[in-house]
Amino acid sequence: MHLSDFDFDLPEGLIATRPARPRSSARLMLADGAAPPRDLTVADLPGLLRPGDRLVLNDTRVLPARLQGSRTRATPQGPATAAVEVTLLAPTPRATWSALAKPLRKLAEGEEIRFAAGLSALVTRIADGRCELAFNLTGPAFDAALEVAGDMPLPPYIAALRAPDEADRADYQTVWARTPGAVAAPTASLHFDDTLLKALAQRGVETTHVTLHVGAGTFLPVKVDDVSQHRMHAEWGEITPRAADEIKATKRAGGRVIPVGTTALRLIESAARGGSVTPWSGPTDIFIRPGFRFHATDGLMTNFHLPRSTLLMLVSALMGQDRIRALYAHAIAQGYRFFSYGDASLLFPERAP
Predict the structure, then answer these.
(1) Residues 106 and 75 in one domain
(2) Same-domain status, 31 and 173
(3) At what angle do helices 310-319 and 321-333 cross, to 10 degrees?
(4) Which CATH number belongs to the domain containing residue 36 in this structure?
(5) Which of 119, 151, 183 is the last residue of a domain?
(6) What is the spatial distance between Cα 289 and Cα 65, in angstroms, rounded to a whole number?
(7) Which of 42, 86, 105, 155 fits as disulfide partner to 191, beta carbons 3.0 to 4.6 Å?
(8) Predicted local confidence at residue 179, as pLDDT
(9) Which of left, alpha, beta for 52 (phi over 0: left; psi -120 to 50: alpha)?
(10) In the structure, what pLDDT confidence band is assigned to residue 353 with cuts at 50, 70 and 90?
């Protein structure tokens, strides 16, 4: 398979920069087996699922990981201050944070960057296009300062069109987010609100929470033509014994297991390589592309993904490449909104994956 096999033309006007309001009013394309796609809304979801089906929800919480700071250096003309933008990626075993910085080439190890709310950091290492930062605050004090000083780390394709603002603090967070650690949202879950969750429960649809801390690597482009040579970024996840038991119980009872979002799917399939989902904790770099054998997933609710991306390869693995090409052509023709704040699809493969 070549990278060009996963390419398509997307009009820029279909890139969503704000979510639908209310959340569940977003459009939903149902693709059930080989049947023609149906154009619905997310609010229709309870009627599309069966009592005993189980939605798997990622409960990661997005950090306000984008920081605007400044550094100051002594010059013959006096102190010179320059702006620095930092996006936190993940904590390291060295009690520092791995981060992206702009402009990285003008930073120096040992330099201090000052942010708002009394937050500052020393640059301890620069390598591989990233830096490591040692902050002056830790624990709850760091969390509180980050909430004040940071902005939501909107994806590059939104950030290129507008800056993050106060509305994104709620919009780019799921209503059930509870475990801090992500620098990108599990975006299919952004369509859910309390009204929809209540309707699903009344329908008899079960839910299970898992955690996968989505990293900025989810937006990294694939740079190799032979997609089998691509190496995925690792992300930390956890499936508790209770969550694993709930998923297995649904399988035994004949219900369908439907992850909401590719992050939840990647996690449960990482934990199901032995044939069924087992408790899991640790990093996963699973790469799901056509030819992958699914063990846990019966369907998927997901947004519409970037051309030439690993997420497009994932949905192609579930539904088949030709089917996904046809579905995306339909979505474009019907004016569906794409990417993180865009509309959704509910995908059921023609045969059990």
Answers:
(1) yes
(2) yes
(3) 110
(4) 3.40.1780.10
(5) 151
(6) 30
(7) 42
(8) 95
(9) left
(10) very low
